[in-house]
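Task 17 of the worksheet. Students: predict the tertiary structure of the chain below and write it out as structure tokens. Keep your answer in the requested format; marks are given for formatting as well as content.
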Amino acid sequence: MPTTSSDVGGIAKILEMLALAYPDKQLSRQSVQVYLENLADIPARILDAAVRAHIQSNPYFPRIAELRQAARKLTGGRPFDALEEDPYEMLTRQAVELEEAFYQRGELDVQAWERLAQQFDYWRRPQRAERTRERLRVYLGG
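Model answer:
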């Protein structure tokens, strides 16, 4: 997929946010270019959400593979070029998947639930974030 100037601008702003969040990490011009090229196929809104989640949960500057993995997680593994769904719908689908994991397999990934709540907050859905946290508290027995 060719990269448009608006894609590059969006990715550049996201890399700028990373640089501010991790001031000890210095990226060379060549490194920035590698990040731009290897993240260009990810929609800016998805990449932005992945970066924000990484910043909130990891003290180290992310590798390209980590950002791609986080973005894939946000999209449920769907190809980036096939995305038409808005972020809120993707998060709603993730909530359903987490509930199915709990009810069908007895799996409770506390960090995944909290990341989901943080993403609802990020996408300006504070009521949904609070409901997500409340469900987690119930599942934890508290």
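Marker's comment: The chain has seven helices and no strands. The longest helix spans residues 87-105.
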